[in-house]
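WARN retry 2 of 3 for item q-0093 after timeout on previous attempt; input resubmitted unchanged.
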Amino acid sequence: MEHFKDWLAHLPEIANINWLALSGKLLTILFILVMARLLYSGIEKGMRRFLKHRAASGDAAGKARLETIMPLISSVFRYVIYFIALLLALSEAGVDTSALLASAGVLGLAVGFGAQNLVRDFISGFFIYFDGLIETGDVITTGSITGSVERIDLRNTMVREFGGRLWSIPNGDIRSLGNFNRGWSRAVVEVGVAYEQPVALGIDNLKEIAEKWADENPDIWLEKPEVQAILALGDSAVSLRIVVKVKPMQHWATERELRRRIKDTFDEKGVEIPFPRQLIYTRKDKA
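OK item q-0093 returned
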C-alpha cells in the first residue's frame, strides 16, 4: 500500500516529463546506431568489391596482400565507427562526453597495465603485416603448428592445419616462424640401397630418374636435380639422396612424384631397397 502511495506521489513528476522531447532523443540515438551499422556494412562491402575486382585483374600477389590487410582495416573501421557512435549517443542522452573521455583516459591507463598482452598482440599484428612476414594463403610453421594462414586480425592469426583443425594464435605469441611461400623450396628424397648392390647402380638409376623428371617439369624446378651420395652407411642400407630446388610450395608434390618413380624404377631394374634385418647366430654348448 505504501509503495502505491509513493507511486501516486510521483505522478505529477511523470506528467511533467516532455515525452515529445524524450521520444526525439531516443529516435536520434537509434538513428545514430543504425547509421553506424550501415556505414560499417557499406565500407565492408566496398572493400569486398575492391578485392573481387583486384582478383579478376589477375594480380595474385596483390590479391594475397589485400586479403591479409582487409581484416586489419575492417577491424580498425569497426572500432572507430562504433566508438564515435557511442559518444554521439551518450551526448544526445545528456552525458558529458568530455568528462567521460577524461575518465576513460585515466581508466585506459589503469587497464593498460593489466592488458599488456592485448596491446602486445595489436602491435605485433601491425608489424607482422607491414613487415610482410606472412600473408593470407601462406603455409607457415610457428611453434609446433604447421598450416595455411586463413586470416590475420589485429589480435590473432588464424592457421588451419592439414587435418582441418583451425588454430587461433595471438600475434604476440608468434615469436618465430617459417614460411614455405617465400623465394623457393627444396625437395629432398632419401633412399637406401642394399649393401649387396653396387652403389653405382643406385646412383645411376637416381640420376636417370632425376633427369627425366626435370625434362618433363621445367616449369617447377629452379635448379636441376642433384644426386648426392653416399650420405650414410646405415645398419642395413647405403643412403643416397636426390635434392632439387623448386618454386615455393612445390616441394611436397615433387617429393611424392620422385618417390613413386624411384620405387617403380628400382622394381623394374632389380635394385633392392632393403628393410631392417638381423643375423642371429646360435651356439650349442658341448655336452
